[in-house]
Amino acid sequence: MLDFSVYGQKEPEVYAYKCPQCGTLDYPAPMICKKCSTRRDPSGVIFSAWEQVPLGGKCKLLGWTRVYALPEGFDVKYLLFAVVEFENGLRASGRLLVDDPQTGMELTAKVGVVKEKVGEDVYGFMFDAA
Amino acid sequence: MRKVAIVGIGHTVFGNLSEFDLVDVMSFASANALEDADILKDRKIIDQLFVANMGGGIINHQTGIASALVSRMDMEPAMAELVENGPASGASAVKCGYAAIASGLVDTVMVTGGELMRTVTGWKGTDFVATLLHPEVEYNYGLTLPAFAGIFTRMYMERYGLTERDLALAAVKSHENGARNPYAHVQIPVTVEAIHDGENAAVINNYVAEPVRLYGTCPVSDGAASLILCAMDSPKMKYFTKKEPILIAGVGSATDTHCVHHRKDPLDLKAVRLGAERAYKMAGLKPQDMSFAELHDAFVILELAISEEVGFFEKGKAQEAVREGVTRIDGRLPINTSGGLKAKGHPVGATGVSQVYELVKQLRGEAEEGRQVKNPRHGLAVNFGGFGNNVAATICSKEA
């Protein structure tokens, strides 16, 4: 079996951003900390680019839908989408893999390919049964 | 601040106008407004144009639309700017027009909003509107405006006991009005039997984004609407003698988080509430003073949720008003007398202007038979952009 880890290949992840001053987490990356107004510099040249903290694990289903009218690039009959809340209080939208969901149910967030573009896979949250 | 009046209104039919050119469609509505204001020949008295359009650059491959419109109308050297604020572009352009006159910068403004969306496939159209979502954490997933409407509707149903039948009733109400509006995209009335109660309802009215069904959404439309604004204290008011001037009594807008998941309570449409509050404050009026309203029902659920946020009904009670017929044309507070986005259609850049067009038409007493509100004094329009992240409200009043 090939071991890709020797090439530095990492599992795809979705990150929250941690304010270096007060430790507040946000997702997606803000430009100014909501709590203490510390600035983030995406280039990391003038200020810190902030620490990236993997976001995932256990979460709770807040709201969901099954969509039949999908935009260009999604060639399936339907997809389910959800808004969830993680244990650290952060929230996110993403794909839902449970076909018969109940609002409030426990889920686990995985990271997978949510969109296939020509020559590029887009990774994002896939919420599955806990 | 100076008082600002709407002295001319124009509209095209909403529907499939894909055989025409975007600037032609917008110009046609503009010419209708100039004619209504009786200044077609004197159109060069217009100092400034504000043009509302969301997708020209993406779906029609045309930019610089404000300049193109001025030239097509032979209105140079008027000042002209484009206002792009997603589906709330129209009301934002009205607000800019109001501000330009009230501040004393100019005396006369033409506000024209338009969109040509049927030139692309439904797939592409849905994708185009979805570009207003967060590109990385929403759009990339294939999330769309209908998807967020689905999530919102389910949460609303679970919290407040709204039913699919309530949404069908509100849709039937709007289609009744739309059937009497010669500019509406859909002029065929529907029955609650056909879209909910009957045995074929599930086929006729299929799910788009559960629990939102086809009749819980608006059609994708082409079209344009236009308004002529003038300062009440301007000597140019002498041109506008044929029609009753209708005052812009209040304008207000507000923003909310770009990402829906950042909202503490996703059912709390803060930008709607604040935008309307700002407009009420400026007008010195209250929700109870409104004789009727045009509320941005891109999804029928939004008509209900907005009607609560603007203070017409208590939170979670709008469906009771729908059941009791309060919002019908003969009810205590008619909502979406034009047919709303539901029946009239939703050419995104045109919608906010079209809503104010309807306020003026009603306040002048010019609405078609069967959809004229009795003796209206004040009307409220709410134009909803994003999934509630940028909302603009306009209040129009008859002159005291």
Description:
The complex is a heterodimer of chains A (130) and B (400). Chain A is mostly beta strands and 130 residues long. Chain A has no helices and eight strands. Chain A has strands at 15-18, 25-26, 51-54, 57-67, 79-86, 91-96, 106-117, 120-129. In chain A, the strands form two sheets. A five-stranded mixed barrel of chain A has the order 4-5-6-8-7. A three-stranded antiparallel β-sheet of chain A has the order 2-1-3, with no helix packed on it. The mean pLDDT of chain A is 93. Chain B is α/β, with parallel strands linked by helices and 400 residues long. Chain B is built from 14 helices and eleven strands. Chain B has helices at residues 22-36, 56-59, 65-72, 89-102, 122-130, 145-160, 164-178, 192-197, 201-204, 270-283, 300-309, 318-324, 340-344, 348-364, and strands at 4-11, 48-52, 79-83, 108-115, 207-209, 212-213, 223-231, 246-255, 292-295, 378-385, 390-398. In chain B, a hairpin with a 4-residue loop joins strand 10 and strand 11. The relative contact order of chain B is 0.20. The interface between A and B is medium-sized, with 30 and 37 residues.
Provide a quick synopsis of the model:
Chain A is an all-beta fold.
SSE layout and pairings?
The complex is a heterodimer of chains A (130) and B (400).
Chain A: E1 15-18, E2 25-26, E3 51-54, E4 57-67, E5 79-86, E6 91-96, E7 106-117, E8 120-129
Parallel strand pairs in A: 6-8
Antiparallel strand pairs in A: 1-2, 1-3, 4-5, 4-7, 5-6, 7-8
Chain B: E1 4-11, H1 22-36, E2 48-52, H2 56-59, H3 65-72, E3 79-83, H4 89-102, E4 108-115, H5 122-130, H6 145-160, H7 164-178, H8 192-197, H9 201-204, E5 207-209, E6 212-213, E7 223-231, E8 246-255, H10 270-283, E9 292-295, H11 300-309, H12 318-324, H13 340-344, H14 348-364, E10 378-385, E11 390-398
Parallel strand pairs in B: 2-3, 2-4, 9-10
Antiparallel strand pairs in B: 1-7, 1-8, 4-7, 5-6, 8-11, 10-11
